Amino acid sequence: MYRSYSRLLFWISEACYALITLVVACFLAISCFALLQQAVRTAPRAWTNNWDTVTIGATYCLVLLLSVAFCTKRRIAVRRKLQRISKTHSGIHRHDLPKPVHEYISQEFARSCLICYECQPRETTHPGWGIPGTEHGGTRFRRSLLDTIADIDARAHLVIPNLPPLKPHSRMIHHFRFILPLLLKDDQGLTALHYYDSAIQLARTSTGEPTEDEFTLGLHAADEMRRILNDCRIEMLEESRTQLNVSPQTTVKS
Fold it and tell me: What Cα–Cα distance (Å) separates residue 208 from each residue in 126, 137, 178, 202?
């Protein structure tokens, strides 16, 4: 599609250029003919020793030659410059530019890489952020925990379509109370929803940043809820397929 469009633009450009050239050439020919006719009429002898006619004809011939030469030179120069542009992505090699320029670029690139490497944090911790080089390096705990709410809510609506819409400040234990029977309890009688609700409340209301242990606990609870909701969704789809396969056979027997 893009190729045909570019080809069409190329032919339209060529046609417009040819049309403009023809119009200019016609006007020049008409003006030349008119001047020659006037020079012949005003001369004492029509063509004998009529230097005005020679001057006019030579001037127009010179203008024509210079115009053709200029246009040809211009088009050749533009085409050569366009042909030098690489149509494929390629890196800059040493022979593509002068040696001092290549050395300067290499030195600046090495210096930038060294600065980036030296600026990386090492053995430093920031409250609410993962330690660099670990599993949660560069992760902001508060934002990551709050981002899981919308994902779990969308999965819960697939299992329970009549689930009430999520309110901005509602407790997770209250909003997801309808999926509580689907969750397994631990030795203390708590489900993943209870741990998830605690982690979200800390992320929402705590003045301090969540610790890595709190973040890990909330993230594991969120993953457990996602897994159970996905399993329920798969079971619902398999049951619906089974019912669709059984219904036609029952109809045929009856």
Answer: 12, 19, 31, 9
How wide is the angle at C-alpha 142 spanned by C-alphas 137 and 148, nearest 5°? 95
Q: Which residue is associated with the tokens 């024509």?
A: 64
- In this structure, what DSSP letter does residue 87 have? S
Q: Are 40 and 46 in contact (CB under 8 A)?
A: yes
pLDDT higher than threshold 90 for residue 151: yes
d(CA 41, CA 58): 19
CA distances from 107 to 93, 112, 113, 191 (A): 15, 9, 10, 58
Structure-token pair, residue 17? 């250029």
Q: Average pLDDT in the 152-164 region?
A: 91
Residue ranges of E strands in 40-174: none
Question: Is the alpha carbon torsion for 52, 58, 61, 62 positive or negative?
Answer: negative
Structure tokens that stand for 24 in this block: 């200019």
**Predicted structure pTM score:** 0.50
Q: What are phi and psi of 129, to 5 degrees?
A: -125, 150
- Helix or strand or coil: residue 186? coil
pLDDT at 47: 58
Is residue 86 very low, low, confident or very high in pLDDT (cuts 50, 70, 90)? Answer: low
